[in-house]
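Teaching assistant here, posting this on the class forum so everyone can see the example we discussed in section. The complex has four components, and the goal was to see what a joint structure prediction looks like when all of them are supplied at once.
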Amino acid sequence: MAAKKKSLEHASLLVLGLLAAEDMYGYQMIVELERRSDHTFQMKEGTLYPILHGLEQEGAVEAYEQQAPTGRMRRYYHLTRKGQALLHTEAEAWRSYAHGVDAVLHGILPLAEA
Amino acid sequence: MAAKKKSLEHASLLVLGLLAAEDMYGYQMIVELERRSDHTFQMKEGTLYPILHGLEQEGAVEAYEQQAPTGRMRRYYHLTRKGQALLHTEAEAWRSYAHGVDAVLHGILPLAEA
DNA sequence: GGATTATACCTCGATATTCTAGGTATTGCA
DNA sequence: TGCAATACCTAGAATATCGAGGTATAATCC
């Protein structure tokens, strides 16, 4: 009974999280997110690109173009120091939010898996 | 460094979660949510009441009025069987969503607390 | 007694976030 | 040649939540 594909609610946090490990280009992030979340969510292009542009304007990421082996141009994004700080803040907020929800739901579900 | 009060993103799930344990009235839910989440979030009245009315219309909750010891009228909500099913579905969706986010963020934060 | 605070309910319009649905262009494959 | 996958983008719609107001009663303080 796999969960349905869910919409996102912390899109920018997830983008920052991805970029913490390595530089990525947009399309790659969409594929990676679906893979890493075990197909739980699927970021839409209409969500991702505006977020990337916003993060770039804030100075949280920096973009550069690079040619793929195929010859196509890709726009890679790199996490700046400012972006790392932002990620840290948002990740912490996520932690306490998730904690809070779990506290309210405590005992509702039979702890599906380990 | 207590986290800032965060807005909600799963308001109806939290309402259902509260009602799983006992019947409650609106104002009480707001107070309880803040308490149980260790002051992490604070449901706004403008969020809660429309949700309660919606859940009632769906048949997920049933309302009844009851006089408080003070003499004031309170509108209590009771989780129906349908509401329990809804809660279960949403709680499971939450679990996999949270799992997915954690998978992406894995290793970002130094596991603040136990 | 009068004022203020806490309780208790409600709604409307604004804001924020994400999605839908389109668009462009290149590459690879059948 | 034509179609699918890759790769980028945007405008407007839809949804969720909040802010700020309203009403009314009960309790507390001066």
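For the discussion questions: Residues 10-113 of chain A form a domain with the Arc Repressor Mutant, subunit A fold (CATH 1.10.10.10). Residues 5 and 40 of chain A are 5 Å apart (CA to CA). Think about how each of these relates to the inputs above.
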